Structures are given as C-alpha cells and as structure tokens.
C-alpha cells in the first residue's frame, strides 16, 4: 500500500534545496572520513544582523582615547565642521556630535583658548 503526498511548487523547491544540502554534508563527511582535509561547510547558518553589528561596535570602541578627544574638542571649539573631523579620525559624524553636545566623553574638559 502506497501513500500519495501532494506538494505545492514552493514545497518541492524547498525539498530539493534541503536534499542538496544533505548531499553536500554527506560528501564533506566522506572526505573527512577518508582522511582528507576538511572542506568548509557548504551550509552555513548566517549570524543575525544584530550580532554582526555588536562585533563591529566592539572593534570601533577603541578608536578614540582621551588625547584624541581633547584634540576633537579643540577643533570643535575652532568651528571646524564635524564631518571633516569625523573623517580625519575615522569615526562617524554622530560620534563627533555626541562629543560636541556632551553625550560622550563629557568628563574631558578642554581649556578655552583666548
């Protein structure tokens, strides 16, 4: 006795994709079993976008230090445009504006030049 399954076109496409993924996984497993060098996985799960952004933020966190912030504040005091300062320090213009308006690095005080 056989059972008949009715699939939509999209279900057939998804099924074919999954079969292809399984075949690639089996091929990679056979290469490793045979003593060959492991191949990169054909099927990789993408990291959520938020995780990638978090990694970037951690990497950028160390771009500015107190010395650089003092220089930024001095350049802001001399009316230099924030976008020009941002470009020279390799940060986003919003970072410069946050320094300008005291949202970031507010504890750094710069003497007023006369």
Notes on the structure:
The chain has a domain at 63-100. The N and C termini lie far apart (96 Å). Helix content is 57%, strand content 0%. The mean pLDDT is 79. With 114 residues, it is an all-alpha fold.
Features:
single chain; 114 residues; mainly alpha
Kindly summarize this structure in a few lines.
By secondary structure, this protein is an all-alpha fold.
Shape: elongated
What is the strand content?
under 5%
Task: Give the biggest sheet.
Answer: none
Order of helices and strands: HHHHH
Radius of gyration: 28 Å
Mean pLDDT over the residues:
79
Structural class: mainly alpha
- Rounded to the nearest angstrom, the distance between the terminal CA atoms is 96 Å
Give the number of helices.
5
* Total number of strands: 0
**Helical amount:** 55-70%
Unreliable stretches: none
